[in-house]
Write a structure and sequence with these properties.
alpha+beta, Outer membrane efflux proteins (OEP), 4-stranded antiparallel β-sheet, two-stranded antiparallel ribbon, 10 helices, 6 strands, 12% strand, elongated
């Protein structure tokens, strides 16, 4: 082991000496004189190198962040998701608070009362003489029966938590959808930059060729000006494309709750397509089974039913067990007197237990609970209609997403063929111009057709990926073949 570390040390020192010799740098690293010093230096240097290599994320120093990396970071860091997670935690606390109603309530009190009589007539009662009273009690009240109101309230709290979880899942889907669409749009912008740069390079050559032909008096000066104008437009297009990339990067970093870092890039295949072909009916079944908002509506229907039962439970008796311990200490300022004039102490201290059962029954409340029940039943009918409306909207959106995917797939193939033909057309015109068999306007026209064909290809690829992301969102986050 020591020989291996010593070999590592010697190799590193030789590399540092070579770097110092080649670059003329002073690295400030002196070779330790002893074997022990060389050993310690090698170990520390190896640790530092290991930390520098393994300390960062997996995409640090690589070609760039993939869509999977963006989703992983975004779903952990997005502030809207963190807020939804806290809402779920609050729902769990509501369940615990509702569960507390099943247990007895224990209360305690201590009272000190100083009583001073102002005026009294007739036979004086001890309770109204000058005195100081101290009272302590501890009570336990246990609900024995409440018409299932406590149970229904507890179940209702569980439904509220499920609703919060569904809202969290829906927020996760929407954040993932925004990250995906932003990522695919950024990939399209990057392709636009490549196309724009290639167009600028081709037009630079066209301007040079036009100027050369003009010097030989083979073309008009107007053709040179036209080529220069086309080059200026292409450079403007390149600036716009580069700004689009910067805007797309800023949006993606914001969705991941990260500051914009120019050192971090993004990479992905913009032309990745899924092989599985899903039908509308299968997608709609997945949507009805997986969409959190659909589950949310059903939970709200069930919760409204519980609210109706809680309202009607107010017409049932509530039975409570009340057990208490009491300690009352009364000190009178003046002693009591017998008929013979002798005095005695009236101070007293009473300690006692008390236990009893109380039943309360609400016979009439002006119909309040009955009307509350009717309100919740109307809410159930409203939510049932909303479920059908959501199903219709999902059906329409799924139809549109499938149509958009098929349309984009066809346009991708035709755009690829058109781009290939446009490149060949441009190359032919360029060759003919050099041979003197074509004109600069014809070459510029071929260049324009090539830019349009490549732009249509990028647009169709983006439209396809956006349609897939929409279908994934509408079906409840289902992952199809070919998805990242």
């Amino acid at each position: 082991m020591f020989r291996y570390i010593h070999f590592l040390y010697e190799s590193l020192c030789n590399s540092l000496k070579s770097l110092k010799f080649c670059c003329g740098l002073s690295l400030g690293v002196d070779r330790p004189r002893t074997a022990r010093g060389r050993y310690v230096f090698s170990v520390l240097l190896g640790v530092v190198m290991g930390i520098s290599v393994a300390g960062g994320p997996v995409w640090a120093g690589s070609a760039g962040m993939t869509l999977a990396d963006c989703l992983d970071i975004g779903l952990k860091n997005n502030p809207a998701l963190k807020a939804a997670v806290h809402n779920v935690a609050a729902g769990e606390l509501d369940i615990k608070a509702a569960r507390a109603d099943f247990f007895p309530f224990v209360t305690s009190s201590f009272t000190i009362t100083d009583l001073r009589s102002i005026n009294s007539k007739g036979m004086s009662q001890d309770d109204y003489l000058d005195q100081e009273k101290r009272a302590f009690n501890i009570r336990m009240v246990q609900v024995l029966y409440a018409g299932a109101r406590i149970l229904n309230t507890y179940k209702r709290a569980g439904m509220l938590k499920r609703i919060a979880q569904a809202e969290l899942r829906l927020e996760q889907m929407e954040v993932a959808y925004r990250i995906e669409t932003s990522f695919y749009t950024l990939m399209k912008y990057k392709q636009d930059v490549i196309i724009a740069r290639e167009a600028v390079n081709r037009l630079v050559e066209s301007v040079k060729s036009a100027e050369a032909f003009f010097k030989r008096e083979l073309i008009r000066y107007a053709d040179v000006l036209r080529a220069q104008l086309e080059l200026t437009d292409a450079r403007d297009t390149l600036v716009v494309a580069e700004n689009n990339v910067n805007r797309g990067r800023a949006q993606l970093f914001a969705l991941m709750n990260m500051t914009v870092d120019p050192e971090i890039g993004f990479t992905g295949d913009p032309d990745q397509r899924r092989s599985e072909q899903n039908t509308h009916d299968s997608c709609l079944r997945m949507a009805m089974a997986n969409r959190p908002d659909i589950k949310n509506l059903y939970d709200q229907i069930e919760m409204a039913g519980k609210d109706a039962k809680i309202a009607m439970g107010q017409y049932l008796p509530k039975v409570e067990l009340d057990v208490g311990y009491y300690d009352v200490d009364t000190d009178y300022d003046d002693p009591g007197r017998y008929a013979n004039g002798r005095t005695y102490s009236k101070d007293q201290r009473n300690r006692y237990w008390s236990a009893g059962i109380t039943a309360r029954w609400n016979f009439f409340d002006g119909g309040k609970a009955w009307y509350q029940k009717g309100k919740h039943q109307a809410q159930i009918r409203r939510l049932t209609a909303l479920v059908q409306d959501a199903k219709n909207m999902l059906s329409t959106n799924i139809h549109n997403a499938l149509y958009a995917m098929r349309d984009a797939e066809q346009r991708i193939e035709s755009a690829k063929a058109a781009a290939s033909e446009a490149r060949e057309y441009y190359a032919s015109e360029k060759h003919l111009l050099k041979a003197g068999l074509s004109t600069v306007p014809d070459l510029l026209y071929a260049q324009d057709r090539l830019i349009q064909a490549e732009g249509r290809r990028n647009r169709s690829i983006l439209d396809y990926r956006l349609a897939v992301s929409e279908l994934k969102l509408f079906t409840g986050g289902a992952t199809f073949d070919g998805d990242h």
